[in-house]
């Protein structure tokens, strides 16, 4: 009970602070067992809230939580190793900007399982310095899909590899299986698998966008002299309906291109029954088999 009250008192102090960045710091190396706890606002500080940030931690288990209407991203996992997240329900209105469900950066050996994420931005975003990330059994939508990136902003050197997205469902989301990088970046995103995916009325079901620029400020379509190198990406057993005619969009850098892109056992039909689906590519190299739509725009 004393520990529980200590958390409540600390929250009240932080919530009542008028400084721009009050922080509650949990002591390193300690374990606390708490009964259900409610951190209640409104708070005096003008900062935007991250509902939960897990930073520089090892061996974390997070399960059974519900997050509603965070003012910004709901959960951030940064600089961590061996984290298992399961049984979460994350909700924010479809039109709420920057309300990512789970942001992962600088982390390895992360599992996200059996969760429902409905947001106004990425359901899950995998950022630079990430490896061995497993996402299984996640339902996403509304939201901007499960994204690798964005990577390479302001010349960043990206390092992302070993990403596995399996047995997930996208329903009414603006993207499905997504990789997004800025022009002018460097580094790599490689060894990425999207497998056993269900699509329900999804915009941009399969998309690689190496011309990412969400606000279109100072945007130039022509490739800059460098880009994040995307390679060894597999899409398999992906089926369902697309809300847009272009079901597969592989828009790779004119400078670097994407290599070893593989698509197999794809069946994406139109959510509007009479319209066929199509694919488009820029400088995407790879192969496809058993795909609707065909991906004849792939280069050898």
TrEMBL record:
Q: Which residues fall in a coiled-coil region?
A: none
Annotated compartments: Secreted, Cell wall
What Gene Ontology molecular-function terms does this entry list?
polygalacturonase activity
- Could you name the active-site residues? 144
| Any GO BP | cell wall organization
Keyword Cell wall biogenesis/degradation set for record? yes
Q: Which SMART domains match?
A: PbH1
Q: Where is this protein primarily located? A: secreted
Q: Which UniProt keywords apply?
A: Cell wall, Cell wall biogenesis/degradation, Glycosidase, Hydrolase, Secreted
User: Which family is it part of?
Assistant: Belongs to the glycosyl hydrolase 28 family.
| Name of the protein this chain belongs to | Polygalacturonase
Origin species, per record, is: Linum tenue
């Amino acid at each position: 009970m004393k520990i529980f009250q200590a958390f409540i008192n600390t929250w009240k102090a932080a919530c009542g602070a008028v400084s721009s960045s009050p922080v509650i710091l949990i002591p390193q190396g300690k374990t606390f067992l708490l009964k259900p706890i409610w951190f209640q606002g409104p708070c005096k500080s003008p900062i935007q809230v991250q509902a939960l940030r897990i930073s520089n931690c090892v061996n974390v288990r997070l399960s059974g939580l519900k997050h509603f209407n965070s003012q910004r991203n709901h959960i951030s996992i940064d600089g961590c190793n061996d984290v298992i997240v399961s049984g979460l329900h994350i909700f924010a209105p479809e039109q709420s900007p920057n309300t990512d469900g789970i942001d992962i950066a600088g982390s390895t050996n992360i599992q996200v399982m059996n969760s429902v994420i409905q947001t106004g931005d990425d359901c899950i975003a995998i950022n630079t310095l990430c490896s061995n990330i497993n996402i299984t059994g996640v339902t996403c939508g509304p939201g901007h899909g499960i994204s690798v990136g964005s990577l390479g902003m302001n010349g960043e050197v990206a390092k992302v590899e070993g990403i596995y997205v399996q047995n997930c469902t996208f329903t009414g989301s603006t993207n499905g299986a997504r990789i997004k990088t800025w022009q002018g970046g460097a580094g790599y995103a490689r060894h990425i698998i999207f497998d056993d995916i269900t699509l329900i009325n999804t915009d941009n079901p399969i998309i690689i966008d190496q011309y990412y620029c969400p606000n279109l400020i100072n945007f130039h379509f022509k490739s800059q002299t460098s880009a994040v190198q995307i390679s060894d990406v597999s899409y398999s057993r992906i089926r369902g309906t697309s809300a847009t005619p272009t079901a597969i969009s592989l828009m790779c850098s004119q400078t670097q291109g994407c290599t070893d892109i593989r698509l197999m056992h794809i069946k994406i039909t139109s959510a509007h029954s009479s319209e066929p689906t199509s694919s488009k590519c820029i400088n995407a190299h790879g192969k496809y088999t058993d795909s609707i739509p065909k991906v004849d725009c792939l280069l050898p």
